[in-house]
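Example (one chain per record):
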Amino acid sequence: MKIRSSSTYLLLAIALLSSCEKYLDGTQLPANTIAATDVYSSDNMVSTVVTGVYLTMNNSGAFAGSANANIGYTMSLYTDELRALVSGNFADVFYKNAIQSGQSGHWSDIYKKLFTINTAIEGINTSKGKLAYKDQWLGECYFLRAYFYCYLVNIYGPVPLALTNDYAVNNRLFRAPEADVYKQIIADLKIAQSLLSNEYRNGYGVSTNNRLRPNKAAATALLARAYLYAKEWANAEAQATELINNTNYDMVPLSSVFLANSKETIWALAPGSPKPAYEYAFYNNGMPATITPPQGPNSSFVYAALSNHLINAFEPGDARFSEWVRTPTVATSPETVYRFPAKFKSPANNAEYQVMLRLAEQYLIRAEARAMQNKSNAADDVNAVRLRAGLGELPAGSQASLLAAIMKERQTELFTEGGHRFFDLKRIGAIDAVMATVAPTKPTTWKSYMAYWPIPPNDLLQNPNLEPNPGYLQ
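Predicted structure:
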């Protein structure tokens, strides 16, 4: 975990804000920037720091628009959702399950963001300034800390719980058990729930229609997920129910799910400047429906298509396949057909945002939580998702068959979104069985240690108490 000073991060936030001032006015972020000695003495100054975290999410690491880093893209390649179309480029590292210790950049990037968050929490709590929106800024910080740890623990397993900006403490931390990490995630989200309002607010603390900064519902959604992953079924059900009953959210037609600020969106991330959604660039990028040789998908800088494993998971008549899958052809003889994710369709700037949390997941969380408690109404939530997809209700069956059906619905509903498939396969203990079948088609060889990604060697050198994940060369 590399440590930076708080002043370094303030300067970074100011620079980032300055680079996109026009876009930021009236959306998720504040338009103005400031420079002062006391970083946390006013709402504008605090907002600049917190806002800088969202901007760095867009500009680096797991949630950015770079295909060789974006979690949804790389983890879909890593598992059974995508297949690489070009050999020897960045996609091969993930597709062939060939990540080496020096190629796992999310660890350092997320811990840098956590340092900024921890510094902000301390600064806001000890500020002597009159902060009108103190609860908002603190709530966002606790939410973001929980969100980042959700990804760290699912990618790397046990991880150090850095909850301070004291480098002397952080650089000596041992890896905390996964159960302890989830306890911290849940604790942070409960605080976030208590601080955040039901409204969405922008970087000025003003109410907005843009669902681009977390509110109480976002904290509730992530808390439902955390409880599910921690196997606290009753709590997961209760949190998901709170959202499902909230009239500000609803499952919308498939064609509208990913439109900016759709009623299904609980929280989304906007690009740092006006542009189409990242996922549009990953899988479409203006590629014509009919491609004339010698052109191919790579001519549009598209390097991955849906795998046959995912294509075959869709039932006949599933409207998600017709609505969320695009099928360009290459005019060869016989023609070559490709299938690409098409959840994000618009080339227009800001017509769609990167959706981080949405309501359909909450139905599937509640379905699984109820099934694990052997509740008779568990199938109702799966059927709500299936009904929107134009599919019939599930037949009556055992708990095991219902849980298998829920996992299948998660596969076809949440594909290529945020690493869901990778995390699901691991948490239900199915990763080895699935990848043993998938890996030979890539072709590569799957080994159990690959379920957790390697920790960067530099971080292992800096912290003598940090143990590496097994199986990787250090």
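Caption: The CA atoms of residues 88 and 96 lie 10 Å apart.
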